[in-house]
Structures are given as structure tokens and as C-alpha cells.
């Protein structure tokens, strides 16, 4: 059977995390900066390294079977591909921003204004939905400086920390969409057993990344209180300690509840709490 192909970004913000995700899924491959294609030695997959803008269409046209790319690029290219898995990295928002001295107060104030962007399709759809007629100026890079150069009255671009907007004297004006990296596939590929296996591995890595393995000691008399605080994968493992009436409790805790849970566990009598990263969770 022919190997499947997955397209990932060659260099840029999504490259490192895409490579790391595939490696965390147990895939062995060489990652030479100069090569455009590499073969995975222990899984029927080849990896293509491409500009992110090309990935959705390559997948739509079946040149690659799978791809990892920002949702903003998928929506902008209007490629007909299947969303297989949200990946939780490359998170950002796409916003309209205006100079801090702008008199624009609400979306309707953009009527007749010039908006610079590298994402004309997404912007046009938003403006149409809001019944706004603006002049969309397509710029391929450094969109943020266009108001200062009097090339536009506003911009529409990716924002993550907001630092670039601030340093160019711009303020967010309207939120249009949020985005993160997505595993996409050509239509129909979702039934391929190799793809199902890869998705399963990716999900186990993502689940583990959101989870910490926790071991703590507690006196038996406090055990019932501690257990009510611990959801665990199924139920916590309880191991007797050499010291009578004491046990060690092993469990996993969701990263987002971590500090809240740890403080409650301490208050309920937990001692010697050890926290470890989790590599994979297979359910
Ligand atoms: O060479 P290639 O075409 O492959 O890459 P690229 O230069 O087009 O894209 P790249 O590597 O910059 O970004 C790839 C993807 O990362 C984007 O399509 C988004 O899905 C995602 N992403 C996440 C971001 C950001 N965060 C981000 N902050 N893409 C770009 N930015 C830029 C933004 O354009 C702005 O200039 O960072 C600046 C803003 O950052 P803050 O933190 O100052 O707000
Ligand atoms: Zn690009």
C-alpha cells in the first residue's frame, strides 16, 4: 500500500509544534531543514514541508492526504477539506484594528474606509455580514504599518499578544474569528485505518498535555475527603505505606484545575505531593 502524505509548515510559527506533535505520536523521521519531503521509518507516512498558504489546496487536491495548518488559512483559501482534529497550538485571533486616534466607534463607521489585510476573503465575508462597504487593500506583509503610511484607515490581521498592534499605535476594533492549528484531511480520508490510528495517537498526546500525574500521601482517616476531590481517569489508585494508617494516592488532574485542586487537597490533609508530566493517555 502507498504511504499517506501529511503536509506541515516548512518554517514559521507552526513548524516546530507540528514536528513535535508527530514525534510525540511515536513517529521517527529525520527533520533536515533543507528537505521538502521525509519518510517516517516506523509508520506508513511521508511528511511534506510546505508554505502554510499552500497546504489547504494541496490537501483538497489530494497531493497530500493530510495537513496541519492554521484555521485562518483554511478559511481564507476556501479549500474543501475535512477538519479531523483541533490541535490546541498556534492560537490567535483575527481582528480589525484602527489607529488609537481614529474616530471610528462601531462597525458601521468602517463604511467607505480603506482596510489593509492579507486575509481579504475572511474580511469580505465579515463586512458583507455586517452590511459594510469598505475598500479592502490586499497587502502581503507588515499590514500593521499601513495606517501610519496613510495606505489605509484600518487593518485586519492576526493578533496574539497584541504587542504588534500597540507598538504601531493601533487598538483592536472588531473581533472577526479565532484560530488554532487543525489537522485536515482530503474528503474521505477519515475512514482510512492509518488516519484513524494517527488521530488516536494525536488525541492521546493532547489529552496527556492537559493532564498531570499526582502522587500524594494521606492518613486513612482523611482518605474519603481526598477521594471526593479526585476525578481521576477511573478512580484513584491507593497504595498502603510502610507507616501504618497512611496511604499513597495516585491519580491524574486536569492542568486547568491544577492549582485549585492542589490547594484543596492540602487543606484536606494531603502531604508530600509529587506532580509529574504525563506522556500519553490511551483510553
Ligand atoms: O512562510 P509561511 O507562508 O509558511 O508562513 P507565514 O509567514 O505565512 O505564517 P507564520 O509562520 O507567521 O504563521 C503561521 C500561522 O501561525 C498563522 O497562519 C496563524 O494561524 C498562526 N499564528 C499564531 C500567527 C500568530 N499567532 C501571530 N501572532 N500568525 C502570525 N502572527 C503575527 C501577526 O501577523 C502579527 O504580525 O504576529 C504578529 C502579532 O503578534 P502579537 O503577539 O504582537 O499580537
Ligand atoms: Zn504563509
UniProtKB/TrEMBL annotation:
InterPro entries given in the database record: ATP-PRT_HisG_long (IPR020621), ATP_PRibTrfase_cat (IPR013820), ATP_PRibTrfase_HisG (IPR001348), HisG_C (IPR013115), N-reg_PII-like_a/b (IPR011322), N-reg_PII/ATP_PRibTrfase_C (IPR015867)
GO biological process: L-histidine biosynthetic process
Record keywords: Amino-acid biosynthesis, ATP-binding, Cytoplasm, Glycosyltransferase, Histidine biosynthesis, Magnesium, Metal-binding, Nucleotide-binding, Transferase
Intracellular or extracellular location(s): Cytoplasm
The EC number(s) this enzyme carries: 2.4.2.17
Superkingdom to which the source organism belongs: Bacteria
SUPFAM superfamilies: GlnB-like, Periplasmic binding protein-like II
Catalytic activity as recorded in UniProt: 1-(5-phospho-beta-D-ribosyl)-ATP + diphosphate = 5-phospho-alpha-D-ribose 1-diphosphate + ATP
Claim: Electron transport is one of the keywords in the record: no
Protein name, per record: ATP phosphoribosyltransferase
Originating organism: Parapedobacter pyrenivorans
Encoding gene, per UniProt annotation: hisG
Amino acid at each position: 500500500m502507498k504511504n499517506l502524505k501529511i503536509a506541515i509548515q516548512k518554517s514559521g510559527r507552526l513548524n516546530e509544534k507540528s514536528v513535535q506533535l508527530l514525534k510525540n505520536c511515536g513517529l521517527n523521521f529525520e527533520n533536515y531543514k533543507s528537505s521538502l519531503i521525509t519518510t517516517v521509518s516506523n509508520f506508513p507516512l511521508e511528511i511534506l514541508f510546505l508554505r502554510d498558504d499552500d497546504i489547504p489546496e494541496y490537501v483538497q487536491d489530494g497531493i497530500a492526504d493530510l495537513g496541519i495548518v492554521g484555521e485562518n488559512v483554511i478559511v481564507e483559501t476556501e479549500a474543501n477539506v475535512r477538519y479531523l482534529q483541533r490541535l490546541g497550538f498556534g492560537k490567535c485571533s483575527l481582528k480589525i484594528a484602527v489607529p488609537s486616534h481614529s474616530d471610528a466607534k462601531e462597525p458601521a463607521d468602517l463604511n467607505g474606509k480603506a482596510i489593509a489585510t492579507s486575509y481579504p476573503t475572511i474580511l469580505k465575508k465579515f463586512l458583507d455580514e455586517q452590511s459594510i462597504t469598505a475598500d479592502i487593500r490586499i497587502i502581503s506583509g507588515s499590514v500593521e504599518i499601513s495606517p501610519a503610511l496613510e495606505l489605509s484607515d484600518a487593518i485586519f490581521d492576526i493578533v496574539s499578544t497584541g504587542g504588534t498592534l500597540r507598538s504601531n499605535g493601533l487598538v483592536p476594533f472588531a473581533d472577526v474569528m479565532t484560530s488554532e492549528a487543525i489537522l485536515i484531511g482530503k474528503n474521505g480520508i477519515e475512514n482510512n485505518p492509518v488516519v484513524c490510528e494517527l488521530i488516536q495517537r494525536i488525541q492521546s498526546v493532547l489529552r496527556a498535555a492537559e493532564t498531570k500525574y499526582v502522587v500524594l500521601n494521606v492518613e486513612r482517616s482523611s482518605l474519603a475527603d481526598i477521594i471526593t476531590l479526585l476525578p481521576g481517569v477511573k478512580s484513584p489508585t491507593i497504595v498502603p505505606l510502610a507507616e501504618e494508617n497512611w496511604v499513597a494516592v495516585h491519580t491524574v488532574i486536569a492542568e486547568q484545575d491544577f492549582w485549585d485542586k492542589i490547594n484543596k487537597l492540602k487543606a484536606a490533609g494531603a502531604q508530600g505531593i509529587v506532580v509529574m508530566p504525563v506522556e500519553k493517555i490511551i483510553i
